[in-house]
Amino acid sequence: MIAYAEVIGDPVAHSRSPTIHRFWLDKSGLQGEYRREQVTPADLSRYLHERKRDPAWRGCNVTMPLKTEVVPHAGRLGAEAQRLHAGNLLFPEGDGSLRLENTDVQGVAEPLRRLGRLPHADQVTTYVQVIGSGGAARGAVLGAGLAGYGDFQIFCRNRSAGLEVAAMTGTPSANCHPLEAIGPIRPNGELDLHRLSHVIINATPMGMAGQPDVPVDLTSYGPDTIVFDMVYSPLETGFLRQARALGLRVIDGLDMLIGQAAPSFEAFFGHPAPREHDPELRERLTA
Hints:
It is a single chain. The chain starts with a strand and ends with a helix. By secondary structure, it is α/β, with parallel strands linked by helices. It has two domains: 4-102 and 257-286, Leucine Dehydrogenase, chain A, domain 1 (Rossmann fold); 106-251, NAD(P)-binding Rossmann-like Domain (Rossmann fold), CATH 3.40.50. The chain has helices at 17-28, 44-52, 79-84, 104-115, 135-146, 159-168, 238-245, 253-269, 278-286, and strands at 4-9, 33-38, 57-62, 76-77, 89-92, 98-101, 125-131, 151-156, 176-178, 196-202, 226-229, 249-251. The strands form two sheets. It has a six-stranded mixed sheet with strand order 2-1-3-5-6-4. Strands 9-8-7-10-11-12 form a six-stranded parallel sheet, sandwiched between helices. It comes from Sphingomonas arvum. This is Shikimate dehydrogenase.
């Protein structure tokens, strides 16, 4: 019996998770498999019922649109999953119950910490502007908080969902705005780029193949802005191309994908992810 894990969602054919986990299995000298399985919200209950009866199943990563749908099916929730009411890692525990964790939080925090801030003598604060209102957006806010950021704005089309994200993360409702309103914050209406800085995180499917680009003009943002796109298919979205052309600092979807996958790998296969091979893994993922 070969142990296996998988990624579930709809769509899921684009997922790079199988490549990541198979790479780590090979580098670690472990036997195991990692698969894709297309699962819709309507299929989720049947899927979990079948997998729980399979002794070879070690769990699954959960992608859109199931990150909130999976919550009622979990017997136990980790702290981040409970706080955000969303998760991306589901696995069986010894007593047969399912545990849900949210490792997206770590996937966001890790590259933000690595880039760090560019301080200015008259710096007031850095606003993290999160685009989206689903499970990925919730993870983005909490992950940025874990990286040391404390001021947020939420931009989305569904205001009620955006207000839920704001409430969960302690963001004032006044900081929840329509998607079309996104732009840099100016203190007292002044064009002082050194008093307020920005991190912009796209936590929506915008930019994916067949989806429109993120509707934001980055030319008015300061030169220290961090542009973070959680989309990884394609890796170079219009949002990131615009940021690179302006010389802004960029975090792409692979940075987050690898970061959130590492704790999943250990949960599935009982071995730490061999992160010392990250440069080679990125080469494989972008080949």
